[in-house]
Design brief:
This protein is of the alpha/beta class. Helix content is 41%, strand content 17%. It is built from eleven helices and eleven strands. α4 packs across α11 and α6 runs antiparallel to α9. 5'-O-[(R)-(carboxyoxy)(hydroxy)phosphoryl]adenosine binds next to α6 and α7.
Amino acid sequence: MTAFHHQPPTILALDTSCDDTAAAVVKGRLVLSNIVASQTQLHRPYGGVYPTIAKQAHLENWPATVELALKRAQLAWSDLDALAVTIGPGLAPALEVGVTAAKQLVADHNLPLVSVNHLEAHAWSALAMAKPKNWRKLIVMELEKLSQFPEPTWPILAIVVSGGNTLFIEITNFGQYQILGQTLDDAAGECLDKVGRMLSLGYPAGPVVEEFAKLGQANKFKFPLPMTASEDFNLSFSGLKTHARNVIEKLTQAGKLDQAATYDFCAGLQTGVFRHLAHKLGKLLAQRTETGGPFFSEVWLGGGVAANMTLRQTLRAALKPFKLKLAVPYSQRLCGDNAAMIGLIGALKLDRGLIETDPTQLERQPRLILGV
Ligand code: KG4
């Protein structure tokens, strides 16, 4: 049994959900190209994403991004089986650009259109596969074998940790999702970015926090463990942010926020944020073991913060007592916003006939959720 019922299709995918214009070509789960035109430099002066600037940059960037994705995949429009586009969740003006472009492209090239939930794509991103160097020389059967993936043993636990979302998702089949826990306020990446801003680390601060943390000692600054009294698996990062603000203010007033203290603080912050995730994850798995419900066969990690090595180590340590493995995206580019993950879901949806019956009616859904 495989996840694809037919031949794995070739999909061109487009994602303009936030501040990256992304286009990719996939064959099934095999990533043939994955182009991301980043707008980070444009938004940096604002310390966050500025929607009107994002929209303008998407409008300017999408045609070249799409062309480059096809070129890198060494394919033509006639080689494609469908086009997939992110419809949400995300910034409305940014999503609008991708959806409008997709409608135009499917009309021009006579292709089916598949709409994709950005969160669903992050949840499945660990299953994407890198193309081998010699992929053009492979015989059809070999290529098809690579682009297939075995039907997972359900249920799967997916953890999405990004700048906009932090979620524990139970997947019982393709398209069947239940949110087991999520952040009640800031997302984990948002917390790192906001505290990083207080430390003048630039935007986005998450990757800088990771680099600085390597130079510091995590035990110099201890962060509280949030929501220990709650029995559910929801998360909250705003208390950590407030704690960080208070400590930074005190250090600044005392003239003690030097470089060494900043490194130590980043190490402590990262530990605090990831400890909270690991604690709730452990609680979730322990409860599942006690109630004797169907246990997860695997854990998939996705989202921008999934690029962080300390997060991976922390989650792996939490999974060890339950003998669970953590699957992570094969490259950093697949962690942050990208279109290869959109293509992967597009391929699975096309395989199941889940296409837009009237593409002209497709609308962006900025507040799209996952599951019920
Ligand atoms: O998935 P993503 O690109 O965008 C959203 O959909 O939110 O995630 C961006 C987030 C930002 O908060 C960024 O600071 C964080 O991911 N991030 C990291 C790292 N790389 C990106 N956080 C910690 N360590 C990293 N290496």
